[in-house]
Amino acid sequence: MLIDKYETPCKNAITSEKNESPCRFPAPASPRRSNMQQLIVSALLASLWTLCTGSGDWCYQTQFSCAHQCNAPEKWNQANSNCGGKSQSPINIVTRKTLKDERLTPFKFDNYQQTFSNPIKNNGHSVQVAVPQTRTISGGQLPTTYKAVQFHLHWGTNGGPGSEHTIDGEQYPMELHIVHMKQHYADLTTALADPEGVAVLGFFYERSNSANKKYEPIINALKSIKNTNGNTSLSSISLSQLIPAEQNLTSYYRYKGSLTTPGCTEAVIWTLFENPIPLSMEQLLAFSELKFQDGKSMVGTFRPVQPLNGRKVYRSGGAVMLASSTLLMLAITTALGFSQPN
Ligand SMILES: [Zn+2]
């Protein structure tokens, strides 16, 4: 039956027009409504959304099922209109369309090597670690100095694709976000009111044959925080041990976007480094052992890529193209070498 193909398993529960579910939303405001009416409707929508989901909480696509109809990414904009904005994150970066910008010089990382020992927490969406705010970044065409606030990760299912950003359509197994805010702000809420208030450094991971010893403190801690709201103390770590060596951080992409979770605030200067961080399959798998609030495996913790809507993506001077010309030279030299008689 052809029609069956288009019926979703949850059709009767959520999409049927005849369904008189108490969770149906009123029709969108018509253009004739006054601003006040629109405001009331928006407020009503937001409160209904909260009512229908219990906590007003959001979820990733992997958490959605007929039995658990949580607010998956395509519905995030119903509670947060920001999530339907024109400058959302993550995005797919098409490298041949990126614009080279010589002003994207290497970053200056301050106190990134200083160790700290803060709790690591399963917050129901990810694992997160607060960072003492004395670690700062500057340079790299940032308008000012930004201080680190926290870091967290996004991953797939059992080491499969799980990064938020993709490069030429390739999704890496995991992505690290080190969240920074302008140095003079006291908290993230204030920083998010500034369109350039937040700077996130994003790093991709790649599967390696051997374990990354520098990640052992985090990997070991995961066992103790499998359940939502679980937290444990992390043995002493530094931000620099989690990311590639500074000399390998000169190639990166830059664009303006948003937080990748609700409220999706468009206040983020994004930097995505080209060089990935190696982790063994065993280390990647450890993240899929974590649990969401409902006890299901915490997997697929990424938002799908969002439309670029005409935004420009820039690349630093040292990125992609230099690497390709080096490879080309190497190939020519090798070919010439091979053609020489012994
Ligand atoms: Zn993130």
From TrEMBL:
<comment type="subunit">
    <text>Interacts with SLC4A4.</text>
</comment>
<keyword id="KW-1015">Disulfide bond</keyword>
<feature type="transmembrane region" description="Helical">
    <location>
        <begin position="319"/>
        <end position="338"/>
    </location>
</feature>
<keyword id="KW-0336">GPI-anchor</keyword>
<comment type="function">
    <text>Catalyzes the reversible hydration of carbon dioxide into bicarbonate and protons and thus is essential to maintaining intracellular and extracellular pH. May stimulate the sodium/bicarbonate transporter activity of SLC4A4 that acts in pH homeostasis. It is essential for acid overload removal from the retina and retina epithelium, and acid release in the choriocapillaris in the choroid.</text>
</comment>
<keyword id="KW-0732">Signal</keyword>
<dbReference type="InterPro" id="IPR036398">
    <property type="entry name" value="CA_dom_sf"/>
</dbReference>
<feature type="domain" description="Alpha-carbonic anhydrase">
    <location>
        <begin position="56"/>
        <end position="317"/>
    </location>
</feature>
<dbReference type="InterPro" id="IPR023561">
    <property type="entry name" value="Carbonic_anhydrase_a-class"/>
</dbReference>
<keyword id="KW-0449">Lipoprotein</keyword>
<keyword id="KW-0479">Metal-binding</keyword>
<keyword id="KW-1133">Transmembrane helix</keyword>
<dbReference type="InterPro" id="IPR001148">
    <property type="entry name" value="CA_dom"/>
</dbReference>
<dbReference type="InterPro" id="IPR041874">
    <property type="entry name" value="CA4/CA15"/>
</dbReference>
<keyword id="KW-0862">Zinc</keyword>
<dbReference type="GO" id="GO:0008270">
    <property type="term" value="F:zinc ion binding"/>
</dbReference>
<dbReference type="GO" id="GO:0005886">
    <property type="term" value="C:plasma membrane"/>
</dbReference>
<protein>
    <recommendedName>
        <fullName>Carbonic anhydrase</fullName>
        <ecNumber>4.2.1.1</ecNumber>
    </recommendedName>
</protein>
<dbReference type="GO" id="GO:0098552">
    <property type="term" value="C:side of membrane"/>
</dbReference>
<dbReference type="InterPro" id="IPR018338">
    <property type="entry name" value="Carbonic_anhydrase_a-class_CS"/>
</dbReference>
<keyword id="KW-0472">Membrane</keyword>
<keyword id="KW-0812">Transmembrane</keyword>
<comment type="function">
    <text>Reversible hydration of carbon dioxide.</text>
</comment>
<dbReference type="GO" id="GO:0004089">
    <property type="term" value="F:carbonate dehydratase activity"/>
</dbReference>
<keyword id="KW-0456">Lyase</keyword>
<dbReference type="Pfam" id="PF00194">
    <property type="entry name" value="Carb_anhydrase"/>
</dbReference>
<keyword id="KW-1003">Cell membrane</keyword>
<keyword id="KW-0325">Glycoprotein</keyword>
<comment type="similarity">
    <text>Belongs to the alpha-carbonic anhydrase family.</text>
</comment>
